[in-house]
Amino acid sequence: MARSEETKKPSAPAPAARAASASTKKAIIDALNKAYWMEVETTINYIANSINLDGVRAEEIKKSLATDITVEIGHAQTLGRRIHELGGRVQGSMAFAAAQKTLQPPRAATDVKAVIRGVIEAENAAIRQYNETIRLCEGVDYVTQDICVRLLGEEESHCREFLGFLREYERKG
Ligand SMILES: [Fe+2]
Ligand SMILES: [Fe+2]
Fold first, then answer.
1. pTM over 0.70
2. With 90 as the cut, is the pLDDT of residue 23 above it?
3. Average pLDDT, stretch 123-151?
4. How far is the CA of 37 from the centre of ligand 1 (A)?
């Protein structure tokens, strides 16, 4: 460490998070649960779409979705661990309610564009959910906030990737 750094005065500590009220804590756990199910549902639909698509043009999309499956499962596990740390409970499949209509595998196995659009919509929904949770945590739970900021960054990069695919497919017609 450089000498000038050693003698540097520590900067003022960041204001400590105030204790979250029981209702805020519950709202944060609920938001994490919602995000958890979104990640699980995304995983289900990425598995299906990464297998069903046919055609040479589908290969890149299938490969990308297959890679993202592991990432999205990791997101669900991260959220589940945080729910547990906050005193919540990770639910089983009977509590699951599906919502991703546009990410259902298309009837035509070569309809790559429909899948790309579905992925973009699912990623945008996750981005909205993480942004909401980040706001909810402000001033009361910096650890959950930090987790959501990291996941938000990953969803933004997924979304960006598929927006690129969409542009390419629209150009090719
Ligand atoms: Fe995710
Ligand atoms: Fe994602």
1. yes
2. yes
3. 98
4. 10
